[in-house]
Amino acid sequence: xxxxxxxxxxxxxxxxxxxxxxxxxxxxxxxxxxxxxxxxxxxxxxxxxxxxxxxxxxxxxxxxxxxxxxxxxxxxxxxxxxxxxxxxxxxxxxxxxxxxxxxxxxxxxxxxxxxxxxxxxxxxxxxxxxxxxxxxxxx
Length: 139
Description:
Strand content: 5-15%
CATH class of the domain at 77-121: Alpha Beta
Number of strands: 2
Helix content: 10-25%
CATH superfamily of the domain at 77-121: LysM domain
Distance between the termini: 100 Å
Radius of gyration: 37 Å
Largest sheet: 2 strands, antiparallel
Structural class: mainly alpha
CATH topology of the domain at 77-121: Membrane-bound Lytic Murein Transglycosylase D, Chain A
């Protein structure tokens, strides 16, 4: 363990010494360009990217902002409470959050809903399927 630690420190010191003793060799100034050009001799088979056109006016560039998307929520629909209905079951039936039903109908006590009461169901829920009308049997 100690040997590994000593080798790691020594390797780090050696790397630091190499980096500290590196000298940059300046390139000739006459060949400077505003956009870098890849050296053909060092990059065989490389694709050369097309450089963007230089702007004639310096300053900030305008980036258009995309228009905001508007999501329309369908209007709420009504459900008439039947015998044995509970608020949790009604919300599950229409795949909506119970709290959304409570808030939409200003219900103070979720345990007290009454048969025949019409509840507003948030429009994002599953729309109820219309029930077929029963025709009376002839007598």
